[in-house]
Amino acid sequence: MSGPARAGAGIEPSDPQLSLPGLVEGNVEWVWAEDEGEVNVVEHFVHATVMKDEVAQVLAPRDGGVYVDVTLGGGGHAEAILESAPGARVIGFDRDPEAIRATETRLERFEDRIEIVRSNFGRVREELTAMGLAKVDGLCADLGVSSPQLDDPLRGMSFRAEGPLDMRMDPEDAETALDLITRLKDDELADIIYRYGDERRSRRIARSIKRALDEGDLATTLDLRRAIVRAVGPVRVGGVDPATRTFQALRIAVNRELEELSILLAALQDVIVPGGVAAVISFHSLEDRLVKKTFADREVWQPIWKKPLMASEEERAANPRARSAKLRAARRIPQEESVR
User: Fold this and answer.
1) Exposure check for the chain: N or C terminus, fewer CB within 10 A?
2) φ/ψ bin of 18: left (φ > 0), alpha (ψ from -120 to 50), beta (otherwise)
């Protein structure tokens, strides 16, 4: 197997399941104690592939078909496709080298039926063309952030433990979260926190973050959280941590998640064969809105369902991450049907 692309994404800020630690109700991962600097671990969030069977069923892979998983991650969806059709081939994209290494091991039994490309999924059209593939029979994308990425303090995506202010999916990308904060003006930073995190206190938070930077007190994830708490106050036990939305917003901005998604969605009609299916799982209202708008073009797409498919009650109970997942899928309309 060769080199991949994964973008994570955030989720609806109002949903119980958040893309960063701070789960509500019975799934609180941790909360900030009264004594600043103390972290209480309440429950460990275990990562699992969301709607694995549903994605495989809607793609309906066939022997001889070629399918793309543009957010390979742990390889769960790719594995389901390969198991569904013994003669199917999968091209997996991811930009996280750690995810690639883990998935190569998981899928090694499929040998020459899986090929991994290290790339942003926004480059899917260019990468497939370079491989000599004009079109594929189906494509899936899971826009959520994997738990291993959140759990690793060195990635800087979570405030569960102290780590560098990084947040990059691909460690070779140029700009870290700290670089982004340093580059942006106060109002620009506030706009990002508001737009991507739905944080109404964004201007107050942005000023506090920039003040910490100017004073030399912004180097780690816990420094960032302290700056946010200074602006908005501590969270109640059992509630969502006040830093959750800001961390989400910065991660989305650092990894250009919505920009990459827009490029991917624009390329779908050129990448998928007529009659082929595209399936996208989103966790954030901004992502879902982009997917819905793309599939609303009835000259190009025929949605499989009128409304997005949600995870089953059993899956949501077993995997809190699935609570916010929305699966939209659409069939690429053949040109002759579109003309009619």
Assistant:
1) C
2) beta
